[in-house]
Amino acid sequence: MNIAFRTVLCLIAILIFTLQMTAQSDKFAAFRQTYLKELKEGGIVGSSFVFLKDNKKVAEEYYGLANIEKNQVVDQNTIYHWASNTKPFTGIAIMQLRDRGLLKLDDPVTKYLPELRDVHNKFGSMDEITIRHLMTHSAGFRGSTWPWDKGQDWEPFEPTEYSQLVAMFPFTEILFKPGSKFSYSNPGIIFLGRIIEKLTGDDYEVYIDKNILKPLEMYHSYFDATPYHLLKYRSHSYHLQDGKRTEGRFDANTGITVSNGGLNSPVSDMVKYLNFLVGDPQKQAIYDGVLKRASLEEMWRPGLDAGDGADGNPPGQSRIGLIFFVSEINGHTLIGHSGHQNGFFSYIDVDQKSRTASILVGNTDLSGGNDLQKGLEGRMLKLVRALF
Known about the structure:
The longest helix is centred in the first third of the chain and has 40 residues, at 3-42. The protein contains 12 helices and 15 strands. Strands 3-2-1-14-13-12-11-10-9 form a 9-stranded antiparallel β-sheet, with helices on both faces. It is α+β, with helices and mostly antiparallel strands. Helices cover 35% and strands 21% of the residues. α1 packs antiparallel against α12 (376-386) and α2 packs across α5 (186-200).
């Protein structure tokens, strides 16, 4: 190959790279303009967005306030409540215990929680419900932890003791034949958290901190009440109802539902979690120490149809894996989960093939707003997913 030809090839490669970078820059610029416009017009108090490619941040935006009263600006250190985005951490912990030989996914749940035999199951024995059923939301349990969800002042936020759930087992029933369909269930994930505690002797929060958060260097992530030294970063949350904005419960205790939705974390820490999901050759030995790649990818095998926009499921034609949702969006297979609780919302997506990932999170619930506001999260998520 002569020098002139090599020079031409180099120039072509530089031109292609330049065009790609320009197109990417234009794409994110257009996203940013619409993203900020939607947030402002919709009444979102604070929000953060990050997009990763090959373990590097290629775009990030921090909007608004974490605390209106203190004029606390949102930045990468702002700590959000991640609600149901806690669930995949619970699933990863179960897979860790599986890989250590402490359980099997097809073990009956009653092997570890015999008290569940008090639940009414007209479809057969409670001994037929497995850990896999819990991880695929197909065990037949109801959706909410408490049967009280009418918004009355006397209703508890979440149960604080496992004994409170056990007391309700004789008044609980299995709603469909286990394994026959997907139906999102918070209690099912709580039972997984209880199994983790019984097999390890650790509180759920302690086990996750020691075996997932610390190894991934998520040092500013925690469950429920905020440590004093991190309070200055903690976001408040807000609800919009008929044009009136109210503040959510600050530092709410998720109680026995912690394995279902108790995680609090800054975006800077959640980026480390996303990099674990994407994978990084330079850190793979560390990541495999948390969970082998093969076991993580096992969680992403699509199973039962999870419908379109099911509760806890990002909108899109999706199937349930093991805790994670697998969605076919715009020709891409996205692995992820969402979270909604106490005014906070969050969406996480990972595209294995292109090694890209995104985070969208905010501190304002607009479900009580007008039609434009109610549709804001869906429009925002559509914007984010178009970036893939």
